[in-house]
Description:
By secondary structure, the chain is mostly beta strands.
Amino acid sequence: MKTFLTGILVIAFLAQARASEAPDGWSEAVNGLRARLSLERDPKSPFLRVFIALQNTSDVAGIRKIRFNPQTIVLRVADAAKTPLAKANGEYDGMSPTWEPLLLPFEGTIRFRISFPGLGYRPETDRTIIDLGPSMSWVIPDDKEYFVSGTLTIPKMEGDHRHSDWSGTLTLPTTKIPTTSKGEADGPPYEIVLDGQRVVFDKAESVSIQITVRNLGMKKLIAPDLYWGLSVVWDGKEYKRNHKHSVLWDGHAEIMPKTAWRTTFSLSEYLVPAEAWTAGRHSIALRDAFAESNTPTVFIEKSSADQAVREAAWGEPVEGVSVRLRADKTRWTTNETPTFKLDVRNQGQREFYTVQSQETGRLEVDGVWYGWTRGFDFDLKGSGLPPGRKYHDIPVSLGSKWEATPEWRDKTQAPPPQIPLKLLPGKHTIRFAPEIRDLTVKPKPQNNYVPSNPVEIEIWSNLK
Length: 464
């Protein structure tokens, strides 16, 4: 009778867990935000890598500011009968990064790691560990299945903006913990195979290859988590995925045991620098913590590779941040407004904040600096710029809203008027410097302007 009742409780718990889970493991949205946990095994360590993904589902366009830190999360570990697993109480010696508020764009998704192990363990017996700090660590036994769930709570603070500052409580759906049973075969739980039928590409951005993921284990795989967690290995060097390409998933969500799943990946989705897009022969592979694909060879044709190298020049870095300006075309008539695309990247060690718009930056034309003087859009795209982050294709145009400030020598007279930008026929050298803010400097943020590479354009008279 006791066994029968236990079985009923197990079935009831699993049914309740499935009912509470949103599609693909997302929580129910609260105040325009939803979240989900994911756990990954490290083949070289018993510590599971714990990630949280946050997604802006608000109907109001704009940035959501999220005051996240590990103390805002409370996790619980239990077996299928909802019996809690006792927390670990071993020696602890670990470190945690400094957390700043997250800025999540409209309809944006961010996924990041929240576990930084420091728990002492016994290598001969402790095979699976969840470690989110001294007060939230568990050694997971191999005797049965265990599940993790929890809540993310950020209280409302005085002065919070109604739309931009997020507060509330998210209930994180139950997630099965990937343990390694004693009878389980060694080796990766899945294989990644690149089917490189096409060998030659006209440019690196067009390199795309079909991949097959073969689930060799006994547990289902979550396709978007696996796919977004892959890195590309280009000529032996590993590059992470560009987070702007990790958007809403529209495809197969699960890879069941002993089945295969196919999709296509593009090299342009990864942070491979343009200077690596040289003509000739290249090797390419995909990898994550569990598996690495085969390594086919591809070729990039010379003409397009030379163009990529020409466009690869970046400005001198400031605190690790560098900027690249690219003209949409090099020749313009006098009745056209020259336009450009701006790329910003952070290869340093510090986190900054920038605005993905030209209004807060400075424009240099033939050695003269101009500022934006015709008002600001207060819904500008503010974005965090942590180490490794890169933003592409920020529009810059050389219209009349740019004005230069003449030197004011005689202070007894009224200041001279601003000089609007006017491009005369001929060649001109252009640079652009976006504003980069360091929010950690107190009491006021420190603002820097990071100049781009110089770009030459030519203005032609449209008079015949």
